[in-house]
Write a structure and sequence with these properties.
globular; 3 domains; alpha+beta; about 25% helix; Nuclear Transport Factor 2, Chain: A; five-stranded antiparallel β-sheet; SH3 type barrels
Length: about 220
């Protein structure tokens, strides 16, 4: 085997192996934060995710609530319970869209706490990054523009990477000034192509052999 082929195999294995297995994941490497499914391999995980996606697709609040714990947390102000979940997930509620977005971004298995976490990104180690000022770019080729306009020059195509949101006075602009972590790149990204680690996420825990939604929350 050539050294080039050997090196390629090592790199492929590095990206395919979780950091917890003893390998060092390159900081903010292209594609590092792309969604993946670690949950379907868990006993009952695939069935739970399928039922969750079916409930979301049908906009069926009752079916969603039946997948939840009786004490499911819905905010940090005391909102909880299946009945409250049904009241909040009414037809047309933005919460359905938030659930759709989260489900589209994969599922992580939290080994330390034996929990399923949606989206996958929320359960990842962001290093020293401040979650309040950090975002992940959503896609394999997210344009980093030189200025806050789609007509501006594209400096780089970002691939599921972390960026720091920079201060701006451009209130209402669909573009956010950012700096790409672990690089010298600075520019603008469309707001819709960014996601905060503190956006809505779902956590499920196993109770009596069945996965239940323990929380669906945003913020910290």
């Amino acid at each position: 085997m050539s050294l080039t082929a050997l090196a390629g195999g090592v790199i492929a294995a590095l990206f395919a192996t979780p950091a917890s297995a003893g390998f060092t994941v390159p900081p903010n490497a292209p594609g590092q934060y792309a969604p993946r499914d670690e949950c379907s391999a868990q006993p009952g995980g695939a069935e739970f995710l399928a039922r969750l996606k079916d409930a979301a697709k049908a906009r069926d609040a009752v079916s969603l609530a039946l997948l939840a714990s009786p004490k499911v947390m819905l905010d940090f102000g005391g909102g909880s319970g299946r009945d409250e979940m049904v009241r909040r997930f009414v037809p047309g509620s933005d919460l359905w869209q938030e659930l759709d977005k989260a489900l589209a971004l994969g599922c992580a298995f939290d080994k330390d706490n034996s929990a399923l976490v949606v989206p996958w990104f929320f359960a990842q180690d962001l290093g020293d990054s401040d979650p309040f000022g950090t975002s992940v770019t959503l896609g394999k080729a997210v344009p980093l523009y030189k200025a806050g306009s789609a007509k501006s020059a594209v400096l780089k195509q970002l691939n599921w990477q972390l960026v720091v949101n920079r201060d701006t006075d451009e209130i209402g602009s669909p573009f956010i000034p950012v700096a790409v972590i672990d690089s010298d790149l600075v520019g603008y990204v469309e707001m819709e192509r960014l996601r905060s680690p503190l956006a809505y996420r779902l956590r499920a825990e196993k109770v009596d052999g069945k996965w239940q939604i323990a929380s669906f929350l945003a913020g910290e």
